[in-house]
Amino acid sequence: MTVDPPLLVFKEKGEKQSYRVRIQVSDKKKLLGNKSKNMDSDFGQLVWTDGKHQEIYITDAERRIDLSSHIIKVFLTLKVENTGKTAASDILLAFPPTQVQHLAFIEALAVTGKRKKKSYVRLDVKPTELPDAPNGTKYFTISLITPLKSGDTATLEVLYIFTHSLEPFPVEISQSESQLVYYRDSALILSPYRIKQQITFIKTPSTKVESFTRVEPSNRAGTELKYGPFEDQPPYSFSPIIVHFENNNPFAVVEELVREVEISHWGSLQITEHYNLVHGGARHKGVFSRVDYQSRSFSGAYSFKQLLARLPPRVHSVYYRDEIGNISSSHLRTDSRKSELEIEPRYPLFGGWKATFVIGYVLPLQDFLFESSDGRRYLNFTFGCPLVETVVDKLTIKVVLPEGSKDPSAVVPFPVEQHLETKYSYLDIVGRTVVVLEKKNAVPVHNTPFQVYYTFNPIFMLAEPLMLASAFFLLFVACLAYLHVDLSIRK
């Protein structure tokens, strides 16, 4: 049942501005103040807006939510109109606080042209704070390239990605059961602006949907749920929904990944990756039967026994091992464009099970190290995790520069934490500078190139050969001296 009370209008003392409030809930208990720790109650109460953003009017909004894996992708298309008297230079996006903590990525594009002549321009998106945000609403500001003049319209396409947003229910299942999960959201798009017309599509990985909240108008066809179209919704409208469905896709989560990229000016790039992998789905209960797992196709349907890592082309000297030793159950496929490493842990991973392993490989230096116009050298490498469809809770990339490198700096296309360390290796005197980049909640879309710039005097390349030559020369002189010195005792 959907409760849709009338709009309420409040006025504070000394103010002429009216505050318009509207709530939409799908359960009477929520309307009566039923408390909950999740998002259902966060907006099942009065919310308000002060009208200062009402010069922007969303004429049409379409949202598509992809639940086909444990990494949730939301595609939002907005057609906005400036109904105010002054130009608008930015657009606000609003999120419930329970969603922001799982937000891994957000991107906005401005769309110009139609059909085949469409073009896209990337826009700057930054988190922002607004005073008196209703119910802890979090905001992001989309900065327009050119201000939107009064009466003008613009089309925006927004992509945002959530992690750890699917709740297994039941939280524990046996080897023979399928995994069911909850997804919580709103049938209405949370926005500080009035929306003339909106519609939401939710795609599930299979047709097995146990239940979903019905908000009129809504319907289901195959793997798709449809909410809307809804007409003329005021700011901050919210209608909680829950979708309970089957999802047996691998919930591969890397709790911590440390990637060490060591640069050698003698011609190679040595990569070492340390993984702490866990299955983030429903916890496994009962005993594990390998006989059932291998003989019955539906046994352990939500587990995974292999992962695919996409590596750069021309990779060689690949190894895959854990604390016990080398793991031979891996297959490497290479061509001129890419390399794919298929790895199998020593045992299949069920919910809550973990695996720790190391992947290492060598790449030709000339494919990744270049010289800039100002004479500095820079490494152009890929950020993120090579494993496909994997969430990384904590990612650390360590770029080990050659000894003698100075003035290091990193250029990353998204915010990361940076600091410097020093590492000592064989024949090092002053140590090697290490550029450390850290990011939490990394997803496959973060697998983009980044650069590390530094200055290097080529004379330092002679340091280690000279040290070795000097050592051999001293050893040779010592041997000659030993052979020509008579240490015998003469009578």
From TrEMBL:
Keyword entries, A-Z? Endoplasmic reticulum, Membrane, Signal, Transmembrane, Transmembrane helix
Q: What is the scientific name of the source organism? A: Acer negundo
Q: What is this protein called?
A: Dolichyl-diphosphooligosaccharide--protein glycosyltransferase subunit 1
Q: Which family does it belong to?
A: Belongs to the OST1 family.
A Pfam family (short name) is Ribophorin_I
Entry's localization field: Endoplasmic reticulum membrane
The UniProt entry lists membrane topology as: Single-pass type I membrane protein
PANTHER family annotated for this entry? DOLICHYL-DIPHOSPHOOLIGOSACCHARIDE--PROTEIN GLYCOSYLTRANSFERASE SUBUNIT 1B (PTHR21049:SF2), RIBOPHORIN I (PTHR21049)
Under the subunit heading, UniProt states: Component of the oligosaccharyltransferase (OST) complex.
Q: Which Gene Ontology CC terms are recorded? A: oligosaccharyltransferase complex
Q: Does the keyword Signal apply?
A: yes
Its transmembrane ranges are 466-485
Quote the pathway field.
Protein modification; protein glycosylation
GO biological process entries: protein N-linked glycosylation via asparagine
Q: What does this protein do?
A: Subunit of the oligosaccharyl transferase (OST) complex that catalyzes the initial transfer of a defined glycan (Glc(3)Man(9)GlcNAc(2) in eukaryotes) from the lipid carrier dolichol-pyrophosphate to an asparagine residue within an Asn-X-Ser/Thr consensus motif in nascent polypeptide chains, the first step in protein N-glycosylation. N-glycosylation occurs cotranslationally and the complex associates with the Sec61 complex at the channel-forming translocon complex that mediates protein translocation across the endoplasmic reticulum (ER). All subunits are required for a maximal enzyme activity.
Record-annotated Subtilisin-like protease fibronectin type-III domain positions: 2-54
